[in-house]
Amino acid sequence: MRDLTNRQYYLAFRPDSLPGPEHVPCRDVPVQLPGEGEALLRNIYISLDPAIRGWMSDAHNYIAPIPIGAPVRSTVIGRVIQSNCRSLEEGDVVMAVGGWEQYTTGPAAAMTKLDEHAGIPLSSFLGALGPTGLTALFGLMEVGKPRPGETVLVSAAAGAVGSVVGQIAKMQGCRVVGIAGSEEKCRWIKEDLGFDEAINYKACGDLEAAIRQACPGGVDVYFDNVGGEILDAALLCLNKYARVAVCGWISTYNENGAPGPRNLWQLVAESVTMQGFVVIDYMDRFAEGVDKLAQWLLAGKLQYREEIVDGLDNILPAFLKLFDGSNQGKLIIRIPE
Ligand SMILES: NC(=O)c1ccc[n+]([C@@H]2O[C@H](COP(=O)([O-])OP(=O)(O)OC[C@H]3O[C@@H](n4cnc5c(N)ncnc54)[C@H](OP(=O)(O)O)[C@@H]3O)[C@@H](O)[C@H]2O)c1
What we know:
The protein is α/β, with parallel strands linked by helices. 25% of the residues lie in helices and 26% in strands. Strands 3, 4, 5, 6, 7, 14 and 15 form a seven-stranded mixed β-sheet that branches. A six-stranded parallel β-sheet has the order 10-9-8-11-12-13, with helices on both faces. The longest helix is centred in the middle third of the chain and has 14 residues, at 131-144. Bound molecules: NADP nicotinamide-adenine-dinucleotide phosphate (NAP).
């Protein structure tokens, strides 16, 4: 182990807009051997999430910014290759907070052991059966609180979180309308996932008019993944006592000083509740959530798409796909074992 080299992509300085190779360069360093109570992982999958862009900035957030000089932070799935603790053995596969790197060393207490023989692809523990599926489940059910017959509108609807939100809302007996950025994405959510309507926000012209047409009875729950102009249009279409679940504002992540929403007065006009959340608010219910998502998945009630990109050296161009919309579902880097 002592001779192993760890390739890492680290944060050299903080980007003001889209990160480039100058912000996230590469280095080869000796692998850090595990201390007492720690394990060393060879990473197999690295999750690429929009939130990582937020952690690259030093603005106040729900977790600390990535320190300058540290590997870019990501959730990883890795195989234990050296263990210095009782709970993990060599060969175990775990999920952990790691980085854009080949090897991660960390405390075993913060690693979750996964069953690689459960008949479920390991990568799905980062997506539909992992943080993104749990975000959709708890954000929709606990914050959006949909009731049968209500209309649920979701943005980034063909993405990792949004596509699961729409399918769960359908299971609750809701009318579901998705907003997405291409005809292909709109076709997928309508024809394969069973959304009632889909709006291509890049081609529809007047978005408020398009939402009104797709939601003739108004919107009862808006699950917001993007913020910006789409949020502003959605605010104008809310019903009395509607709920806005603020999951993410990806349209602002690369824009320093992006303007805030203009139509927040609608919260007063329609007695609306708008609530932000992070999935870790529900950490003590993750096991319950994974069970539920797994049941739906195994029963064929929940579909998902993953885009798996091979090779650590492709990690930055792959990450940028989240911001031009060219990712097809949950975006993951694979480092072949
Ligand atoms: N609160 C939480 O705990 C939590 C947890 C996970 C994720 N999130 C948030 O959930 C949202 C979705 O994350 P995800 O992992 O599921 O990613 P994703 O939806 O799979 O990918 C991001 C998508 O966002 C859309 N997008 C990018 N830039 C945009 C812009 N300027 N305007 C409108 N849409 C834009 C693109 O889809 P189109 O082609 O449709 O434009 C892109 O494919 C993000 O805001 C993320 O930060 C929050």
